[in-house]
Fold this protein.
Amino acid sequence: MSGKKASNSAVVLPWNISLFRGGFTTVQPCSVVVKEVTQLERLFNAPPWRPASFPKKKLDCWSPSLYPEGKTRSNKNVSTISAIVFDYDDPEWSAARMAAHLKDEVCIAHAVYTTWSHKDDAPRYRVVVFPSRTLKRNEFTEAREAALSLIGYTDGVDTQCNDLARHYALPVRRTGASYESYLEVSLPPLCVDSFMAETKDSVVSDGTSLLSETVLQITEDGEKQEVGALIEEGVGKYKCSCPFEPGSSFGSAFLRVCKDGRAFLQCTSENHKHEKKQYWLSTKDGKQVGKKSPVRSLHGRKELLADIPDSLIKYAETSLCFNFPQGVFYRRERGAWQIQTPLRRETVVAHLVGKLSGQLGIKHVQALIDHLLSRQVYGFDCDSSRGAIVPSNVGPVLNLYAHPELKPAEGDFPRVLRILEVLSSGEEGAKRWLLNWAACITQKPERRSMVAVLCLSPQQGIGKSMFGRILASIIGERNSAIVSNRSLRDPFNASYVTKLLVLADEVGIGGKDNDITSALKAYITDDRVPCRAPYAARTEVENRMTWWLTSNERRPLMIEEDDRRFTVLVPKIVDGDYRRMLAGCFNPTTGRYSKTFAQEIEGFAHYLHSMSVDYRLVSRPYETRARILLQAASRTSVEHFVRLVVRFGPASVLTDYPPGPDFTRSGGQIAVARAVPCELIYGSYRTWCERHGRRDLYQEVNLRLCFQQMGSITVKRMMLGGQGFYCYLGLPTPAKEKKEDNVIDISLS
C-alpha cells in the first residue's frame, strides 16, 4: 500500500516494530517489517503456546518504538513510534466488550489480546491502536492522550506504561489459561494529522499568541509584511528573521502557508534561546487560522454524511465495495458483484458526483468514499447460503453468488433422460453416477466436485454441451462460465475461477494448448486458486469450481494411471430420430429452449434437488473403458516400452534389436536373464518407436530413470571382455514369453 492511501485504508502496511529476543532484560532490538495482513493475524490471533511454568521475564517482547541501527532500548534512542498501546488491568470491561466498542463505536483499526497474567475472573488485556502514520517523538504524548480520549474508557488503564521505550511481551497462549484476541483492520486507522491539526495551535514562550498582525521581514533587503497578508496570498513558503529572538538574522526562520489555510512559523537556528522551534499561528480570539478539511476526521465525515440523502448512502453501501488487496472498487448489479469490471477510485468518484444534488459537492463524495473504504473487503467467495458480504479467515469478502432465475417445479423430463441415456452410452452405472454428480452440485453448489466429467465423442450435435448448459441454467447462468482452450491460457481468469460451474467446450492438447492439462488439474483439486482481473492486482480465491468438459478429439487430455480427477464418458451412436428430438428442444424463432423443454428442465431441477445423493460414489471417478483407453493413450513412449519390458520380460523386446557380437559371445540369453546392457535396451526402444510411429523419442537417461522408478530394477557398471558398460539388474523373467500389440488406439465410434 502506498503512503498516500494509508490514511484512508486499513492498517498502514508495511508496519514496523522492534523485537527483543530473549525476554524483558534484552536491550538490543531487531527491526521487523509486517507486510501482509496474514502476518498480523498470525501475530495476534495464532500465537505460540507456552507452558504455565515458563518464566514471564523470558518471554520475547515487541515494541512499537523504532530505533536507529545499532542503538539499544532507551527513551533517548527512540526515533519514531508505529502504534499506541494501552494495558488494562482488572477493568470492568472484558476484552470482547472493548473490541466491540472499538469496532462499532470508536471505528478505528485495532488489536485487542489478553496478556500472560490474564484470568477469567481478573482480566488483563492489551489494546493496540494503529495510527495512520508513524509518530515522531514529540507527537507521542499528544497522540496517546488523543487516542485514550477517543476510546473513552479509562478504567484499569496502566498509567505507568507511557514511556517511549516501553516494550511488551509478544502475544502468547499460556497452557491452562484462556486466550482471546480481536484484530480489526477493515476500519480506518487513527488519523494522526486530524487531531494534531486540531491541537497544534501554539503560543510563544512568553504566553502571548502569535497573531496574524505579526510583521515579518520576508526579504534580505528588509521588506516586511504582516502574517495575515501572506496567508491570504495562498500556499507558499517565506524566509524571514525569527521574531522571537532580538537581532536575529534574515533566514533564521521561515513561514509556511498550507493548502488548508493553516500556517506555521519554523525557527531553524540552534543558537536561539526560546524553547519552541515551531509555532502554529492563531487569530486574535485564539482560534486557528484557516480551517482543516473536515473529511480528515471521523467527526467531520459524519457531519458531511448527514447532509447526503439516506438513499444515496444505502445505494453506495449495497452497490459499491472496495477490495483492499487489489486496490479497486466493485459494483453490484442484477444481484451479483461484477468482478470482470473493477472500478478505479476516480471512476467511483465521478459516478457518485453524478448522483449528488446541486447543493452537495466533492467534499461529500470524499466523505462517502472514506465511508466505503472503512468497510473494505479482502477477496471473493461464492456461497449460496450467505449474503452479499461474508466473513472469512482473511476478513470480509464479496459473495459472488447470484440466485438462479430458473425455479424448480415438479414434472416429467423424458427428453433430459434420453440425453442422459446417450451420454452414459446406455450403461446404468454410468447414468447413476452422472445423476448423483449433477444432484451433488445442484444441492450444494459451493461444495465443488473434485471429479470433472469429460464427455468425449467425434459426433456433433448429440447433446454433450447441451447437458452442461442445462446444469448451468439450474445452478444459475450467472454462477456459471463457458471457457475455451484460449480462455484457459489467458492470464485474466476472473471470469470463471469465481464461478460454481465451468463448461469447457472443445478442450484439446494439440498445438499450443498442451499446457491446459496441468492448469485443469489445479483448478479441479486446489483449495485456493489465483484470480486475475484486468486493471487489478492478482489475488487468490476459494476454489468452488466444478468442471464439465467436452471434446471431439481422440486424445484431448493427458490422464495418468493413478488419476483421481476425471470421469470419461463416450456417448453412443445416435440416429436421426434422436437429432430431431434435440432440434425440437429449441424455439426456431428465438433459438432458446422451447416452452415445453424449459418446463422439463424445471422438472429435472426439482428431481435433482430432491434426490438422496451418494457422496461417496461421486467422490471418485467412474471407471469406464474410455477412461482406461485414454490413460493408455496418455502414456509416453518411454512409459509404454517400460510397461512391456516389466510385463513380458526383456527377451520380448530384444528380438526387435539383434544383440551385438560381443554380447552374443558372452552367452546371449543367459545375460538377458541376469544383466542386460542399457545400450541394448535403448536400441530396442528406438526400434520400437520407429516401428509404431511414435514421435516422442526420449533420451537414454529418461528410459533409465523410468526403469529405476520400478524399485526392484537397478543400474550397475559391469565389465565384459575388458570393456566396461552399464546394465540393468533385476529385470523380470516371466516363465512364458508373450507378445503384446503395442498399438493402443481409442475407437470413439
Residues 294-376 form one domain.
